[in-house]
Design goal:
This protein is mainly α. The chain has helices at residues 3-17, 25-41, 50-53. It has one domain (3-53). 67% of the residues lie in helices and 0% in strands.
């Protein structure tokens, strides 16, 4: 597994075990889900382009 993917997964794990007080539970769940989906399906590019977003 790529190191960057592991880093993103660790970040999601960190959020799931440590809720920042500024976030509601719903926001926290959204952040965790987004990070996990990004780790699984994200594509590395120098910047987002229409082609990579499609």
């Amino acid at each position: 597994m790529d190191a960057k993917v592991k880093d993103i997964q660790r970040l999601a794990d960190s959020f799931s075990g440590n809720k920042p007080p500024q976030l509601t539970v719903e926001e926290l769940n959204d952040v965790i889900k987004a990070l996990r989906v990004f780790a699984e399906h994200g594509k590395e590019t120098s910047y987002p382009t229409l082609h990579t977003l499609a």
